[in-house]
Amino acid sequence: MSGHGSGFAALFQKELLRFWRVAFQTVAAPVLTALLYLLIFSHVLEADRRIHGVPYTAFLVPGLVMMAVLQNAFANSSSSLIQAKVTGSIIFVLLPPISHAAFFWAFVAAAALRGLVVGLGVWLVTLPFVQVWPAQPLWALLFALLGGACLGAVGVIAGIWAEKFDQLAAFQNFLVLPLTMLSGVFYSIHSLPPFWQAVSHYNPVFYMIDGFRHGCFGVSDVAPLQSLAVLAASFAALALLTLSLLKRGWKLRT
Fold it and tell me: Does residue 254 lie within any of the structural domains?
């Protein structure tokens, strides 16, 4: 038990140091990108527009914060694994007697933490332009944590599956990016035609964004408990799949 615990702590610390030592790239760069989104979209689309009674610029902030959380959580775990596989250093992680559960939780926890750090940075840099103070901060934090954990798990799956950086980029560009960009970050799904509203309900990232926005404003497109249930079920399914792959050593021990 102590070996597994120390293994988790060592892996978790390694993952934290890995992104923190290049914080200008892993934290500052995505914060700047989100700020540019805010400035451009608010300038083009504001025009006294309101969604759920909230000014559009304010409505945009929670979506940008959660998009940063999710994309950076995915990037942290996926890039760490693919780099370790390509350089061959993955052997130093697999050889010690660390359980697959400790491996999973260390990578997912570090990924979620990086997502939260970037999300906090995005929120802070938007305050001079529009002040959004969470109406229900614990609710917002819960969705941010669970959302980051989900995308951290997806990142582990992508890192296990990919054998080179091109494959990982394809995974991100054709799956993660569309799911986040088409999840209600920049709009309410009620502004979409009925068909696309129905399609949006099959996107789990939509529930992450919508639930977090409820924590900020107390309003949302669907009931927050429904979003929480979808998010919890999604994380449970991703965790079981990832743990199964790690236990088998698929594409890691071959």
Answer: no
